[in-house]
UniProtKB/TrEMBL annotation:
UniProt-recorded name of the protein: HTH tetR-type domain-containing protein
InterPro entries for this protein: Homeodomain-like_sf (IPR009057), HTH_TetR (IPR001647), TetR_C_36 (IPR041485)
Record key words, sorted: DNA-binding
HTH tetR-type domain span: 1-37
Species assigned in the record: Nocardioides luteus
Length: 157
């Protein structure tokens, strides 16, 4: 935070007033990158309904895994990354869940969902997280195709 404050020409205290703390700043930066990536994945995914969302979320996961900034963050600070990305410590998971619910409402009939939209949205976020961070959780290699497979199974329409 001190290096960033120096670079932008403000005191560390001012930077903390502006952004809260390091976790909050990380959350804002990560969301500013994740949100357009998700939007682009949905826009370019083929198909419709559950198949479209499965393909979009597989693509979203693959894109995240392929980006240097994300891989570096996960590698350098795995505990902080999991805390900021997957818990209420940051607002990223809530934002992802809201975005997921909006996608469900836009692309599927709520009556066809096996759960209420808010619960289904949370489940889909957790599916993405499970396969996105599998190397940190189980030590196995992350596989975006598993995201697509799992979500396709959940969202059969």
């Amino acid at each position: 935070m001190q290096d960033l404050a120096t670079e932008i020409g403000v005191s560390r205290a001012t930077l903390f007033r502006w952004v809260g703390g390091r976790d909050e700043l990380l959350t804002e930066v990560l969301w500013s990158l994740a949100e357009p990536t998700l939007r682009d994945a949905v826009a370019t995914a083929s198909g419709k309904g559950g198949a479209k969302l499965a393909g979009a979320l597989e693509s979203f996961t693959a894109t995240l895994l392929a980006t240097d900034y994300f891989a570096t963050f996960l590698q350098r600070e795995p505990e902080r990354a999991l805390r900021v990305l997957t818990t209420r410590a940051g607002s990223l998971q809530g934002r992802m869940t809201t975005a997921m619910q909006e996608l469900l409402e836009e692309h599927l009939d709520a009556a066809t969902l096996p759960m209420d939209p808010p619960d289904m949205a949370y489940l889909l976020v957790r599916v993405v997280e499970t396969f996105l961070y599998t190397d940190m959780i189980t030590g196995e290699r992350a596989d975006p195709a598993k995201v697509g497979q799992a979500i396709a199974a959940l969202l059969r329409d």
